[in-house]
């Protein structure tokens, strides 16, 4: 398959763009593979790519029930950061950040990774103390973090209500400058193309409907396109984890599925040059290269598999935006949609062998799985290939919930919708 380059762009432009090849093949499923990855989201595709690249395992099928990008990988608000407090999370997410920094080059696909920074706004002295503590913990791990003054914030983000009479006065913030955004569906397409080039079969419109068992051991799957056998079956279906694991007889998991909405405004002149988060509620925003604001807030708050949300949360998100940027009151919302998030009980993910022999599980991504995509695929591939976790995902076990060793970065307790 041809390399994407300035030269190939020019050649195809002169050629009427007739010679572009399909980015990945459309193979029929083979009767068996070494590894089956269930779920063609960002995590499933990245896993297949790193299995082939890092471990030489290319006899892999990724089974996706819809089309690539139909899940949360194509529905998120694209924020990428590694500003965590606890070392288990900060080491894992910083590994992801380092993979992001070279991803376009590595995949030969422009994922439009833009390190425009991520600023968490603080509105109370207690919150600022908390951010200072998190920033210090990050720096201790070698991750960039800066505490910002109101004057610095005012210069960086024009339009923010910085007055003392603001509904929630801003008294400082925590900035990670290496954080930013990426083009979400390009990440799916880039991993898909790169995995396909290494021999991985990506099979769309192929829903897994059950698991083949030999005693306890999982030895393959039944699908809408027939039975497929495999030595190892890895599940990476994000919001559908509960549903898919039930097909294997696993009835209870420390995960709830919730709807999370995203919104896009009409195009505005560039004014928001960083990702920004509100400290007194749940609101985050960035501005796309086309000028639209991309923003979101809280979960809808009830369990659901629907990919659309409800009006009260929409109203809540808009009111939080206006508390920060009163001048946006007349901006029109162009689009909104929802995605199904796999909320774990402690807000941290699960990347593990099991829970059945021959099976591997990747889940619990909550609000934040997009930024994890490279490290999640990298660590999951390691776990599948070697039957043991990498040090970066060693803590992300399933039995930590049973043993009470939670990784609760926000200190919210075991209420999944709060993470
Ligand atoms: C509105 C919204 C905003 C978000 N914003 C951010 C953000 O700014 N930053 C961030 O880091 N994260 C964000 N996230 C979270 C992030 O998008 C997810 O955590 C992450 O994409 C989940 O991993 P994935 O890409 O593999 O999931 P998905 O893309 O959902 O992949 C799972 C795939 O499994 C497939 N599947 C399900 N069941 C089956 C089956 N039976 N057989 C075969 N295939 C099946 C699905 O069709 C789907 O394609 C956001 C999420 C939402 C919804």
Automatic annotation (TrEMBL):
GO terms for molecular function: nucleotide binding; sarcosine oxidase activity. It catalyses: sarcosine + O2 + H2O = formaldehyde + glycine + H2O2; sarcosine + (6S)-5,6,7,8-tetrahydrofolate + O2 = (6R)-5,10-methylene-5,6,7,8-tetrahydrofolate + glycine + H2O2. Its cofactor is FAD; FMN. Its EC number is 1.5.3.24. Coiled coil: none annotated. It is found in: Cytoplasm. GO terms for biological process: tetrahydrofolate metabolic process. Keywords: Cytoplasm, FAD, Flavoprotein, FMN, Nucleotide-binding, Oxidoreductase. InterPro entries: FAD-dep_OxRdtase, FAD/NAD-bd_sf, Rhodanese-like_dom, SoxB. GO terms for cellular component: cytoplasm. Residues 34-79 form the Rhodanese domain. PANTHER family: FAD-DEPENDENT OXIDOREDUCTASE DOMAIN-CONTAINING PROTEIN 1 (PTHR13847:SF287), SARCOSINE DEHYDROGENASE-RELATED (PTHR13847). Belongs to the SoxB family. This is Sarcosine oxidase subunit beta.
């Amino acid at each position: 398959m041809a390399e994407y380059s300035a030269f190939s762009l020019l050649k195809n432009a002169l050629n009427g763009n007739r010679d572009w090849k399909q980015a990945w093949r459309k193979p029929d499923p083979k009767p068996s593979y070494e590894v089956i990855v269930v779920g063609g989201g960002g995590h499933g595709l990245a896993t297949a790519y790193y299995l082939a690249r890092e471990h030489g395992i290319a006899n892999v099928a990724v089974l996706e029930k819809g089309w690539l990008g139909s899940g949360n990988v194509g529905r998120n608000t694209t924020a990428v950061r590694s500003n965590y407090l606890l070392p288990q999370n900060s080491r894992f997410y910083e590994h992801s950040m380092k993979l992001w920094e070279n991803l376009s080059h590595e995949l030969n696909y422009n994922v439009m990774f833009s390190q425009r920074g991520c600023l968490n706004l603080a509105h109370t002295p207690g919150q600022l103390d908390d951010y200072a503590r998190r920033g210090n913990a990050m720096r201790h791990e070698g991750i960039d973090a800066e505490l910002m003054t109101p004057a610095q914030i005012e210069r960086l983000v024009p339009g923010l209500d910085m007055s003392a009479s603001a509904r929630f006065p801003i008294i400082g913030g925590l900035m990670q400058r290496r954080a930013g955004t990426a083009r979400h569906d390009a990440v799916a397409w880039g991993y898909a193309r790169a995995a396909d080039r290494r021999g991985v079969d990506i099979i769309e419109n192929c829903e897994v409907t059950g698991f083949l068992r030999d005693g306890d051991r999982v030895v393959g799957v039944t699908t809408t396109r027939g039975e497929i056998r495999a030595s190892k079956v890895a599940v990476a279906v994000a919001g559908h984890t509960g549903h898919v694991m039930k097909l294997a007889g696993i009835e209870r998991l420390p995960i709830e599925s919730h709807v999370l909405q995203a919104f896009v405004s009409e195009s505005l002149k560039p004014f928001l040059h960083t990702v920004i988060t509100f400290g007194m509620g749940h609101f985050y925003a960035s501005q796309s290269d086309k000028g639209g604001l991309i923003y979101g807030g809280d979960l809808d708050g009830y369990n659901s598999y629907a990919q659309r949300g409800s009006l009260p949360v929409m109203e809540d998100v808009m009111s939080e935006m206006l508390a920060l940027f009163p001048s946006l009151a007349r901006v029109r919302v162009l689009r909104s949609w929802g995605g199904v998030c796999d909320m774990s009980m402690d807000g941290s993910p699960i990347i593990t062998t099991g829970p059945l022999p021959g099976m591997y599980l990747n889940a619990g991504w909550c609000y934040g799985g997009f930024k994890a995509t490279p490290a999640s695929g990298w660590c999951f591939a390691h776990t599948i290939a070697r039957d043991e976790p990498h040090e970066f995902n060693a803590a992300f076990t399933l039995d930590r919930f049973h043993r009470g060793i939670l990784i609760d970065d926000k200190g919210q307790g075991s209420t999944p919708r709060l993470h």
